[in-house]
DNA sequence: TAGCGTTCAAACTGTTCA
DNA sequence: TGAACAGTTTGAACGCTA
């Protein structure tokens, strides 16, 4: 195989044995481009599989090929790879037609048709193993996703009167209500229902794990919630500096930051518990657990927030609490992040996923490792095909 | 044939040789769409078979075709495949009528009418020859299919207490009962009724043939039952090695293996006797007999087992003995085999075949040769259309 | 026999992946 | 890049009824 490729450069003009692809007797069909064995008509010419694929690719990605021999190469089976320019020219000269390549739209239509056919004939039922995995994920999620936010402990949210956001929001009405609700509580930390959660630290010991009592593994080395929160706030700070707005916080007052920080902490804690509730996650090395959690945390949080996002009002409805984008602005988040993030929330929410599907998304996010080198920028696309909401920094 | 396809793009307007499909002299009718030889009027136009089929298909599946040439293509015999849009347009322009295509309901009515006619003229009764064949098969089967397992000689079945199977089985109840039954017998080999069968060898001489006394041919060269059993056990062993589980049997104890081996031997012996009872089988060369038996043995055994399979309980009821899938697991069979095998048993049993139909299935299996090259993997589909249960190894 | 529908292997698309 | 694969379209041959 290797020696064939050696001795045919430059493609000699002398070996112009004009192919007589007459079907002499039986079946010796010959590629009219390179002389290889042909497999039938492709784009209106008798060609081999190689020239067929080459022609399609060349036509789909219009690239200007350049011949090193002034375009006089004679294409053969062994040298066809050496000069794309002459190979393509030969393709066209023998009558290959780009019109017979299916158009972008036609291909897409064909694909969706095939998907539809598959759905019809192949029962959409899952194997028992698959069902079990889903059940496991869903159980862990159910135990750690506090829709009512009844265990949420927080400092009151302080909404500024002058909207900082340029987007109009219907937050004025709820602002008073929510602030008023805060005032009913004596302590500076509020909670919907009383819990034993200590406000200062949220260590990762399983002290609160309600799912499994005794079989807890060691989690003392998992990242502390405080660490993760600090990480994110640091990132915000860095970004601010880069944007040349680091005026030391003198002109901009992030009134909602304390509350949003508490909210973030609460979400992170629950997400860590979700991961801990997955046997397949606990089976990983502790360092891997940390890396996965760090890499996926932001995305998983957004996925969870999306489940509470109301597309009609643009408001996140977290139990008795409600948030609008303006609250994020007032916490110091920049348009550069919030713009694509909002697009993400509207897009994803409009798909109207079921809860199980959200859980699967979380799992995909969790188990998609992020390269250490890119941890700084968290995750860029996280495998969610066309739904990347993360700006390209 | 190849030359014709070369030069015809874009479909030229110049080649508009207006077809004169006058029946000049004899029969030179021409397709008004593409110019090919026409086979008559189809949907109100003189067309070829190709354009006839194309028109019907295009009308049945309302797909929007798109012409890459702004719809100016001129359709010819050689380029008609290259632009569906223009071909369909040409069809309609020459007067082809979709009204002449039978509607969905009309087609269905026609089909049932045909079925009815078939029933009338083709008597649903079988010819005497066919009846005779069936009778012959059934007789041979009846004499060799021991529903009561009264001649089954075996070592007691040792069921482990801890279920090895991950699937839940209702085997616990029967376990005790069946083991208890074994205890009533003194010898390590048990049998329901005493027979003269020697436990060590089951030679293929017709010493036990109750059907024909004297006209026995030589069968000493037929495969020994022991051979076949060994073959199958070897295959299981090989598979196990491939799956990297060949721990020398130290960790996995196949407690039921001795009994299952006896059961297999008994089944094989009866199936060989079934084949021997068929004159049409005996008429074959001895080597062919061996090949057919080897190739079909596993499948025929499963068919026989299926006749005793209880879909409700998932238990094979073999006379006084009962088996569940767990027994096979404990004999060393792997999920890779048992999974599709169980599917097969449930599927086939649910069809509720009559006994005669089971016998016909056995015969089909027996007389379907398996290529020597594939003997390793036994039979892959065995001619049972969509019921392949054999995993692709 | 004319003209419907049916069948199914060959032909020809795009896709995958080493 | 191209061999192998997967899926669809085509049309020659055939079955059936009026
Ligand atoms: Zn070629
Ligand atoms: Zn060149
Ligand atoms: Zn035609
Ligand atoms: Zn066209």
TrEMBL record, chains A, B:
SMART domains: HOLI, ZnF_C4
InterPro entries: NHR-like_dom_sf (IPR035500), Nucl_hrmn_rcpt_lig-bd (IPR000536), Nuclear_hormone_rcpt_NR1 (IPR050234), Nuclear_hrmn_rcpt (IPR001723), Znf_hrmn_rcpt (IPR001628), Znf_NHR/GATA (IPR013088)
Biased composition (Acidic residues): 16-26
Composition bias, Low complexity: 185-203
UniProt-listed Gene3D superfamilies: Erythroid Transcription Factor GATA-1, subunit A, Retinoid X Receptor
An example molecular function term from Gene Ontology annotations: nuclear receptor activity
GO biological process per UniProt: cell differentiation; negative regulation of transcription by RNA polymerase II; positive regulation of transcription by RNA polymerase II
Record bears the keyword DNA-binding: yes
Residue ranges of domain NR LBD in the record: 221-393
GO cellular component: nucleus
Keyword entries, A-Z: DNA-binding, Metal-binding, Nucleus, Receptor, Transcription, Transcription regulation, Zinc, Zinc-finger
Location in the cell: Nucleus
Domain Nuclear receptor residue range list: 28-103
Record region (Disordered): 1-28, 170-251
A Pfam cross-reference name: zf-C4
Residue stretches of biased makeup (Basic and acidic residues): 238-248
PROSITE patterns: NR_LBD, NUCLEAR_REC_DBD_1, NUCLEAR_REC_DBD_2
Family indicated by similarity: Belongs to the nuclear hormone receptor family.
Protein name, UniProt field: Nuclear receptor subfamily 1 group I member 2 isoform X2
């Amino acid at each position: 195989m290797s020696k064939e490729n050696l001795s045919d450069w430059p493609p000699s003009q002398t070996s112009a044995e004009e192919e007589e692809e007459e079907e002499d007797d039986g079946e010796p069909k010959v590629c009219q481009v390179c002389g290889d064995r042909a497999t039938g008509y492709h784009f209106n010419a008798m060609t081999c599989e190689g020239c067929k694929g080459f022609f399609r690719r060349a036509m789909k990605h219009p690239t200007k090929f350049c011949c090193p021999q002034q375009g006089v190469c004679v294409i053969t089976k062994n040298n066809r790879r050496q000069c794309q320019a002459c190979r393509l020219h030969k393709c066209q000269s023998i009558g290959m037609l780009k019109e017979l390549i299916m158009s972008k739209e036609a291909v897409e239509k064909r694909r969706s048709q095939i998907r539809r056919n598959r759905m019809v004939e192949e029962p959409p039922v899952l194997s028992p193993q698959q069902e079990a995995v889903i059940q496991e994920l869903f159980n862990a999620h159910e135990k750690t996703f506090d829709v009512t936010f009844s265990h949420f402990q927080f400092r009151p949210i302080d909404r500024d009167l002058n909207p900082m956001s340029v987007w109009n929001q219907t937050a004025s009405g709820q602002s008073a209500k929510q602030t008023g609700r805060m005032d009913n509580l004596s302590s500076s930390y509020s909670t919907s229902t009383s819990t034993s959660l200590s406000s200062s630290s949220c260590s990762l010991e399983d002290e609160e794990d309600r799912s499994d009592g005794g079989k807890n593994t060691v989690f003392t080395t998992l990242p502390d919630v405080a660490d993760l929160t600090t990480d994110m706030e640091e990132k915000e700070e860095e970004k601010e500096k880069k944007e040349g707005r680091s005026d030391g916080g003198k002109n901009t007052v992030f009134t909602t930051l304390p509350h949003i920080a508490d909210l973030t902490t609460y979400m992170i804690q629950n997400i860590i518990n979700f991961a801990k509730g997955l046997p397949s996650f606990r089976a990983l090395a502790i360092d891997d657990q940390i890396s996965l959690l760090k890499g996926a945390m932001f995305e998983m949080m957004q996925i969870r927030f999306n489940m509470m996002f109301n597309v009609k009002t643009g408001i996140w409805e977290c139990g008795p609490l409600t948030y609008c984008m303006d609250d994020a602005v007032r916490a110091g988040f920049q348009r550069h992040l919030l713009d694509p993030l909002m697009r993400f929330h509207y897009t994803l929410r409009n798909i109207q996923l079921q809860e199980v599907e959200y859980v699967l998304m979380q799992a995909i996010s969790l188990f998609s490792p992020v390269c250490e080198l890119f941890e700084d920028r968290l995750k860029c696309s996280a495998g969610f095909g066309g739904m990347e909401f993360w700006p390209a920094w």
